[in-house]
Amino acid sequence: MTPPFDEPTIPPKLQRPLAAVWISLGLHAAVIALVQVVPPTALGVGAPVIEARLVPTHVAAPSAPEPLPATPAVDTPDPVPMLAPSETDEALPVAEPMVPPASPPEPSEPSAVAASAAPPAPAAAPPSAFVPVPAATMTSAVDLTYYSARDLDVHPRALREIVPEYPAEADRQRLSGTVRLQLKLEADGRVSDVEVVSASPPGRFEDSAVRAFRDARFAPAQKNGRPVRALVLIEVEYDWEGRR
After folding, report:
1. What's the whole-model pTM score?
2. Are the C-beta atoms of 151 and 176 separated by less than 8 Å?
3. What local confidence, expressed as pLDDT, does residue 14 receive?
4. Which of 21, 169, 173, 232 has the highest CB neighbour count under 10 A?
5. What is the pLDDT of residues 104-146, one digit of tens each?
6. Which CATH class is domain 146-238?
7. DSSP character for 138?
Protein backbone atom coordinates (compact mmCIF):
# COMPACT_ATOMS: atom_id res chain seq x y z
CA MET A 1 0.00 0.00 0.00
CA THR A 2 1.35 3.30 -1.17
CA PRO A 3 1.48 5.91 1.48
CA PRO A 4 -0.53 9.08 0.65
CA PHE A 5 1.33 11.82 -1.26
CA ASP A 6 1.23 15.14 0.46
CA GLU A 7 1.14 18.18 -1.85
CA PRO A 8 3.99 20.47 -1.25
CA THR A 9 3.11 23.62 0.47
CA ILE A 10 4.64 27.00 -0.17
CA PRO A 11 5.83 28.79 2.81
CA PRO A 12 4.07 32.06 3.46
CA LYS A 13 7.25 34.01 2.93
CA LEU A 14 7.53 32.79 -0.69
CA GLN A 15 3.90 33.03 -1.72
CA ARG A 16 3.96 36.75 -2.32
CA PRO A 17 7.09 36.87 -4.54
CA LEU A 18 5.83 33.86 -6.51
CA ALA A 19 2.50 35.56 -7.05
CA ALA A 20 4.29 38.56 -8.55
CA VAL A 21 6.25 36.25 -10.87
CA TRP A 22 3.05 34.57 -12.04
CA ILE A 23 1.43 37.91 -12.73
CA SER A 24 4.48 39.03 -14.74
CA LEU A 25 4.42 35.80 -16.75
CA GLY A 26 0.75 36.28 -17.42
CA LEU A 27 1.27 39.82 -18.68
CA HIS A 28 4.08 38.74 -21.00
CA ALA A 29 1.92 35.91 -22.36
CA ALA A 30 -0.88 38.39 -23.05
CA VAL A 31 1.51 40.72 -24.90
CA ILE A 32 2.84 37.80 -26.97
CA ALA A 33 -0.70 36.69 -27.80
CA LEU A 34 -1.59 40.25 -28.74
CA VAL A 35 1.39 40.48 -31.08
CA GLN A 36 0.44 37.21 -32.73
CA VAL A 37 -3.25 38.03 -33.24
CA VAL A 38 -3.08 41.63 -34.41
CA PRO A 39 -1.79 41.75 -38.08
CA PRO A 40 0.89 44.21 -38.92
CA THR A 41 -0.24 47.61 -40.05
CA ALA A 42 -0.60 47.51 -43.85
CA LEU A 43 1.53 49.93 -45.73
CA GLY A 44 -0.47 52.41 -47.78
CA VAL A 45 -0.16 51.84 -51.51
CA GLY A 46 0.52 55.11 -53.21
CA ALA A 47 1.88 56.34 -56.50
CA PRO A 48 5.46 55.35 -57.07
CA VAL A 49 7.89 58.06 -56.29
CA ILE A 50 10.57 58.71 -58.88
CA GLU A 51 13.59 60.38 -57.53
CA ALA A 52 15.74 62.26 -59.93
CA ARG A 53 19.17 63.34 -59.03
CA LEU A 54 21.76 65.20 -61.00
CA VAL A 55 24.90 63.21 -61.28
CA PRO A 56 27.90 65.36 -62.07
CA THR A 57 29.80 64.08 -65.04
CA HIS A 58 33.49 64.17 -64.84
CA VAL A 59 34.64 65.56 -68.15
CA ALA A 60 38.19 64.90 -68.94
CA ALA A 61 40.12 68.05 -69.61
CA PRO A 62 41.01 68.35 -73.30
CA SER A 63 44.56 67.48 -73.99
CA ALA A 64 46.76 70.13 -75.37
CA PRO A 65 46.98 69.95 -79.19
CA GLU A 66 50.16 68.58 -80.55
CA PRO A 67 52.37 71.20 -82.09
CA LEU A 68 52.30 71.27 -85.87
CA PRO A 69 55.50 70.28 -87.58
CA ALA A 70 57.57 73.22 -88.47
CA THR A 71 57.36 74.22 -92.12
CA PRO A 72 60.76 73.92 -93.73
CA ALA A 73 62.11 77.22 -94.74
CA VAL A 74 62.16 77.78 -98.47
CA ASP A 75 65.17 79.49 -99.84
CA THR A 76 64.10 82.67 -101.54
CA PRO A 77 66.10 83.27 -104.72
CA ASP A 78 67.98 86.46 -104.85
CA PRO A 79 66.25 89.12 -106.92
CA VAL A 80 67.62 89.46 -110.41
CA PRO A 81 69.01 92.93 -110.85
CA MET A 82 67.20 94.91 -113.52
CA LEU A 83 69.33 96.74 -115.95
CA ALA A 84 68.57 100.40 -115.94
CA PRO A 85 68.29 102.01 -119.34
CA SER A 86 71.48 103.66 -120.36
CA GLU A 87 71.32 107.36 -120.46
CA THR A 88 74.06 107.52 -123.05
CA ASP A 89 72.17 105.52 -125.69
CA GLU A 90 71.22 107.75 -128.53
CA ALA A 91 68.09 107.35 -130.60
CA LEU A 92 68.56 105.52 -133.86
CA PRO A 93 68.45 107.78 -136.87
CA VAL A 94 65.26 107.59 -138.91
CA ALA A 95 65.72 107.43 -142.65
CA GLU A 96 64.07 110.23 -144.53
CA PRO A 97 61.41 109.19 -147.06
CA MET A 98 62.58 109.12 -150.62
CA VAL A 99 60.82 111.58 -152.90
CA PRO A 100 60.40 110.34 -156.50
CA PRO A 101 61.78 112.70 -159.09
CA ALA A 102 59.22 114.97 -160.62
CA SER A 103 58.30 114.03 -164.20
CA PRO A 104 58.36 116.79 -166.76
CA PRO A 105 54.93 118.18 -167.62
CA GLU A 106 53.42 117.01 -170.90
CA PRO A 107 52.81 119.63 -173.49
CA SER A 108 49.20 120.72 -173.36
CA GLU A 109 47.08 121.00 -176.50
CA PRO A 110 45.33 124.18 -177.34
CA SER A 111 42.11 124.73 -175.43
CA ALA A 112 40.17 125.15 -178.64
CA VAL A 113 41.06 121.63 -179.79
CA ALA A 114 40.10 120.17 -176.37
CA ALA A 115 36.78 121.96 -176.46
CA SER A 116 35.99 120.67 -179.95
CA ALA A 117 36.99 117.11 -179.09
CA ALA A 118 34.77 116.91 -175.97
CA PRO A 119 31.21 115.69 -176.70
CA PRO A 120 28.44 118.16 -175.96
CA ALA A 121 26.95 117.78 -172.49
CA PRO A 122 23.31 116.60 -172.48
CA ALA A 123 20.74 119.16 -171.50
CA ALA A 124 19.49 118.87 -167.92
CA ALA A 125 16.11 117.14 -167.73
CA PRO A 126 13.33 119.25 -166.25
CA PRO A 127 12.11 118.13 -162.81
CA SER A 128 9.40 115.51 -163.14
CA ALA A 129 5.97 116.69 -162.24
CA PHE A 130 3.98 114.90 -159.47
CA VAL A 131 2.02 112.04 -160.96
CA PRO A 132 -1.11 111.22 -158.95
CA VAL A 133 -1.39 107.62 -157.87
CA PRO A 134 -4.49 105.89 -159.19
CA ALA A 135 -7.20 105.41 -156.60
CA ALA A 136 -7.19 101.67 -157.21
CA THR A 137 -3.67 101.35 -155.82
CA MET A 138 -4.53 103.31 -152.64
CA THR A 139 -7.26 101.03 -151.37
CA SER A 140 -6.76 99.75 -147.85
CA ALA A 141 -6.33 96.10 -147.01
CA VAL A 142 -9.43 96.36 -144.80
CA ASP A 143 -12.66 95.60 -146.59
CA LEU A 144 -15.03 98.50 -145.94
CA THR A 145 -17.98 97.00 -147.80
CA TYR A 146 -21.20 96.13 -145.99
CA TYR A 147 -22.30 92.81 -147.44
CA SER A 148 -25.93 91.74 -147.64
CA ALA A 149 -27.14 88.36 -146.46
CA ARG A 150 -26.98 86.75 -149.93
CA ASP A 151 -23.26 87.65 -150.26
CA LEU A 152 -22.18 86.15 -146.95
CA ASP A 153 -20.82 82.68 -146.29
CA VAL A 154 -21.60 82.85 -142.54
CA HIS A 155 -24.43 85.04 -141.27
CA PRO A 156 -24.05 87.05 -138.04
CA ARG A 157 -25.52 85.60 -134.87
CA ALA A 158 -26.56 87.36 -131.65
CA LEU A 159 -24.29 86.44 -128.73
CA ARG A 160 -27.14 86.68 -126.20
CA GLU A 161 -30.92 86.82 -126.31
CA ILE A 162 -32.29 90.24 -127.23
CA VAL A 163 -35.60 91.04 -125.50
CA PRO A 164 -37.02 94.50 -126.27
CA GLU A 165 -39.05 96.19 -123.54
CA TYR A 166 -42.77 96.39 -124.23
CA PRO A 167 -43.80 100.06 -124.26
CA ALA A 168 -45.99 100.96 -121.28
CA GLU A 169 -48.48 102.97 -123.35
CA ALA A 170 -48.91 100.14 -125.84
CA ASP A 171 -49.30 97.71 -122.96
CA ARG A 172 -52.06 99.78 -121.40
CA GLN A 173 -53.83 100.04 -124.75
CA ARG A 174 -53.24 96.35 -125.46
CA LEU A 175 -51.58 97.15 -128.77
CA SER A 176 -49.52 94.79 -130.92
CA GLY A 177 -47.17 95.83 -133.70
CA THR A 178 -44.15 95.16 -135.89
CA VAL A 179 -40.92 97.10 -136.45
CA ARG A 180 -38.37 96.33 -139.19
CA LEU A 181 -34.79 97.45 -138.55
CA GLN A 182 -31.64 97.55 -140.66
CA LEU A 183 -28.42 97.03 -138.67
CA LYS A 184 -24.91 97.89 -139.79
CA LEU A 185 -22.56 95.38 -138.20
CA GLU A 186 -18.82 95.89 -138.05
CA ALA A 187 -16.29 93.13 -138.63
CA ASP A 188 -15.91 92.66 -134.86
CA GLY A 189 -19.68 92.20 -134.31
CA ARG A 190 -20.48 95.69 -132.99
CA VAL A 191 -23.61 97.52 -134.12
CA SER A 192 -22.52 100.82 -135.66
CA ASP A 193 -25.94 102.02 -136.85
CA VAL A 194 -29.62 101.13 -136.44
CA GLU A 195 -32.19 102.40 -138.95
CA VAL A 196 -35.96 101.97 -138.78
CA VAL A 197 -37.16 100.70 -142.15
CA SER A 198 -40.85 100.39 -141.27
CA ALA A 199 -43.15 100.30 -138.23
CA SER A 200 -46.76 99.29 -137.76
CA PRO A 201 -48.42 101.06 -136.08
CA PRO A 202 -46.01 103.98 -136.43
CA GLY A 203 -44.76 105.85 -133.39
CA ARG A 204 -45.40 103.08 -130.88
CA PHE A 205 -42.58 100.52 -130.86
CA GLU A 206 -39.65 102.14 -132.75
CA ASP A 207 -37.79 103.48 -129.71
CA SER A 208 -38.07 100.18 -127.87
CA ALA A 209 -36.68 98.23 -130.83
CA VAL A 210 -33.81 100.65 -131.47
CA ARG A 211 -32.73 100.64 -127.80
CA ALA A 212 -32.73 96.84 -127.68
CA PHE A 213 -30.54 96.35 -130.78
CA ARG A 214 -28.27 99.38 -130.43
CA ASP A 215 -26.21 97.77 -127.64
CA ALA A 216 -26.43 94.18 -128.91
CA ARG A 217 -23.34 92.18 -129.87
CA PHE A 218 -23.12 89.65 -132.67
CA ALA A 219 -20.73 86.98 -133.83
CA PRO A 220 -19.32 88.63 -136.98
CA ALA A 221 -20.37 87.66 -140.48
CA GLN A 222 -17.77 85.90 -142.63
CA LYS A 223 -16.89 85.90 -146.30
CA ASN A 224 -14.08 83.81 -147.78
CA GLY A 225 -13.10 82.69 -144.31
CA ARG A 226 -12.60 86.15 -142.77
CA PRO A 227 -14.89 88.48 -140.78
CA VAL A 228 -16.51 91.25 -142.80
CA ARG A 229 -19.06 94.02 -142.35
CA ALA A 230 -22.69 93.17 -142.95
CA LEU A 231 -26.13 94.71 -143.45
CA VAL A 232 -28.80 92.85 -141.50
CA LEU A 233 -32.58 93.27 -141.71
CA ILE A 234 -34.44 92.36 -138.54
CA GLU A 235 -38.17 92.28 -137.93
CA VAL A 236 -39.28 92.77 -134.33
CA GLU A 237 -42.83 91.66 -133.53
CA TYR A 238 -44.71 92.96 -130.49
CA ASP A 239 -47.61 90.61 -129.68
CA TRP A 240 -49.70 91.74 -126.72
CA GLU A 241 -51.83 88.58 -126.71
CA GLY A 242 -48.84 86.27 -126.98
CA ARG A 243 -46.97 87.85 -124.08
CA ARG A 244 -49.78 87.08 -121.59
Report:
1. 0.43
2. no
3. 58
4. 232
5. 556 555 444 444 445 555 555 555 555 554 544 444 467 889 9
6. alpha beta
7. G
